[in-house]
Amino acid sequence: MAYVAVKGGERAISNAHALLEEARRGDPSVPELLVDQVREQLSLSVDRVMAEGSCYDRDLAALAIKQSAGDVAEATFLMRAYRTTLPRFGFSKPVETAAMAVRRRISAAFKDIPGGQVLGATFDYTHRLLDFKLAAEGADPVAPAPQALEPMVHPLPTISSVFSHENLLEQEARIDGDDEPFDLTREPMSFPAGRDQRLQALARGDEGFLLSLAYSSQRGWGSTHPLCGEIRMGEVPVEFIPDELGFPIEIADITLTECIMLSGFAGSAERAPQYTRGYGLTFGHNERKTMSMAIVDRALRARELGEEVDAPCQDEEFVLYHSDNVEASGFVQHLKLPHYVDFQADLLFLRKLRAEFFDRKAAAEAITALQMEPAE
Fold this sequence. Notes:
Layout: H1 10-25, H2 35-41, H3 43-53, H4 58-67, H5 72-83, E1 101-106, H6 159-163, H7 195-203, H8 207-218, E2 227-240, E3 249-265, E4 274-283, H9 287-299, H10 316-322, H11 325-333, H12 340-372
Antiparallel strand pairs: 1-2, 2-3, 3-4
């Protein structure tokens, strides 16, 4: 049988695009899903696409989800591609998460954490049973949630303030004169990677990949089984200093999720025993992602803290090179594209190897047959 290249062209690709749009739309008798419906009712998917797409825009993330028929990885790819077309006119000031207008804040380490536990909107205490009322047409509108009896303290104290008087938790204050942070969107990955580069890569890394790495660490492949010191989610102001003004102005409020994981550290000759921290921060409401990020961040600090490096989640090259879902998806899915020349070359090489194998086998059998003939 002969293997030949399949011929095709623009017409076939155009037809494939038309079929894709038809499949995306689905049954035309069903009302089309609107972008604002995606934005408001699939908000956690929107937040994930914003985080992994490195672009904070809820409308664009919702559009990407609709366009990709709900494929989060494809939607992330669309957001990254769009992001590259945007001009960069400056840099915002670092956000102050301690000043967050909190909608949710919990600590698994401190029951009576200063400011209190704020459960907010969460699946944590649901029974994971399908709610068939949601499938009913014309269902009753959602009842408004009860309001708090007492006003929330603002800003809420951070987990660091709990330990401040004893210095039991490492402090990470920025020092004047530090180098500018690494910019992964403009500079290629480099190793050894500083923590700034690692955190950037993790912040836009694939949630599923980071979740698996965090789980592996908890199960012993990484020796990081931390306690959740604090998770907080809410709105943080973004400030920018225009050149023509010379002073900061507030340009937006964005939703962020922050997580601090606490891991014990037995100390060394230079450092007293204390809790070390793993850190996670992402756009939107992304608790599972920030928790995974914080666990992996702490695992990647093993060498810095003098710990043995013997697990995948402690290998920064393995983690950072493979956590980007856009790059990973592209590298895997490119195998669907034509590789006819590669296949033909492999096929010729394989046939050559097989011919040589059978020639050697025939020669060996001939020699064996001669050796077994009785001497006259």
